[in-house]
Amino acid sequence: MEKNTLSAENRRKSILSAVLGVICIIYVLPVVAVVINSFKVNTFVKTNTFDLPRGEMWAGFTNFIKGMTFGNYPFWKSAMYSALITVLSTALILLFTSMAAWYIARVNSKFCKLVYYLCVFSMVVPFQMVMFTLSKTADKLHLNTPWTIPIVYLGFGAGLAIFMFVGFVKSIPIEIEEAASIDGCGPLRTYFSVVFPMLRPTMISVGILEIMWVWNDYLLPVLVLDINEYRTIPIHIQYLKGSYGTVDLGATMALILMSIIPVIIFYLACQKYIIKGVAAGAVKG
Asked: Which of 55, 156, 181, 280 has the fewest CB atoms lying closer than 10 Å?
C-alpha cells in the first residue's frame, strides 16, 4: 500500500515537473528568439525567425552598431535617461512608501486604514483609465522631465510597495520601537536607526520589482516626456524606423537584447531576496 502511494506521488511530481518545464520553455522562447535574431541579417529575421544565425544569415555585431548609431539621437543618451529615471524613481518609492507604511501600521486609525485600502485599490486600477488625465496634469505641474517624472512613478508604485511594507512592519515587535523611544529617540531617529535596518529584506524585494517595472516601462514616459528631447531605451527602440516606416528588425532585436541583459542579470542575482521579502511581508496581514 505504501509503495503504491509513493509511486502515485512520484507520478504526480513527474507530471508537474513536465508541465512546469513546458511553461518555462514557452516563457524562455521569446528571449531565445531575440538573442538569435539580434545576430541575423535583417532580411532573414522574418523568413528564418527560429533558425540559428549561420552562413549568409550571420550579421555579427553589425546590428548592435547600427542600432546604437541610428538616427540623430544617441543611444547612450537614452540609456542615461533610463538609468536616471529608474534610480530616482526606485529611491523615492523605497523611502517614502516605507515611511508611510510604518505610520499606517503603527497608527491604528480610520484615516490610516482608508489610506491603506486606497493604496491597495490603486493596484487594480488599469493605467489606461488615468493616462490622459495624468499626461495633462504632468504637463501643468511641469513633471515632464527625467528629473521630475519619478514623482509620477512614486504615485503609481506606492500601492504595491505600501502593501508589502505594511505586512512586514506588522511582524516587527513594537517593543523594539518602545525601547528606542524610552532611550530618547524621536520618530525620525526611531525609523532610520531601528525600523529602516529591519526593513532590508522587503526593501530589496520591492526595489527589484520597481526597477524591473520602471526600466522596461514605455507608456508612461512616452505620454509624459518630450520625446524629441528625452527618450528612454524603450522609446529609442520604437524609433528605429527608416524611410516609408520600414523597421530594421535586426537592429531592433539587438537593442532589445542590450536593454534586457542588465535587468536579467540584476534579477538573477537578487531573485532570492524577492521570495524572502514576500514571505516576510506575509507573516501578518
From this structure: 55
**Cα–Cα nearest to 152, from 165, 164, 169, 140:** 140
Give the separation between CA 48 and CA 29, rounded to whole angstroms: 15
DSSP 209-254: HHHHHHHH--HHHHHHS-TTT---HHHHHHT-B-GGG-B-HHHHHH
pTM for the predicted model, two decimal places = 0.84
Q: What is the total count of domains within the chain?
A: 2
Question: Do residues 41 and 87 share a domain?
Answer: no
DSSP bridge pairs for 58: 40
| Domain of residue 134, CATH code | 1.10.3720.10
3-state secondary structure of 113: helix
Same domain? 201 vs 241: yes
- In sequence order, which ranges of the chain are alpha helices (DSSP H)? 2-37, 42-47, 62-69, 75-106, 110-122, 131-140, 149-169, 174-182, 187-190, 196-198, 200-216, 219-224, 233-238, 249-281
Residue 283: which residues within 8 A CB-CB, separation 6 or more?
167, 168, 170, 171
| 11 and 136 together in one domain | no
Q: Supply 110's cell numbers.
A: 480610520
CA dihedral over 85, 220, 277, 283, signed as positive or negative: positive
Per-residue confidence in pLDDT tens, the chain, 285 aa: 555 665 777 788 888 888 988 998 888 888 888 889 888 888 888 888 888 888 888 888 888 888 888 778 888 899 999 999 999 999 999 999 999 999 998 888 899 889 999 888 888 888 888 888 888 888 888 888 999 999 999 988 888 899 889 988 888 888 888 888 888 888 888 888 888 888 888 888 888 889 989 998 998 999 899 888 899 999 888 887 655 567 778 888 888 888 888 888 887 887 776 666 555 554 444
Q: 101 with 120, same domain? A: yes
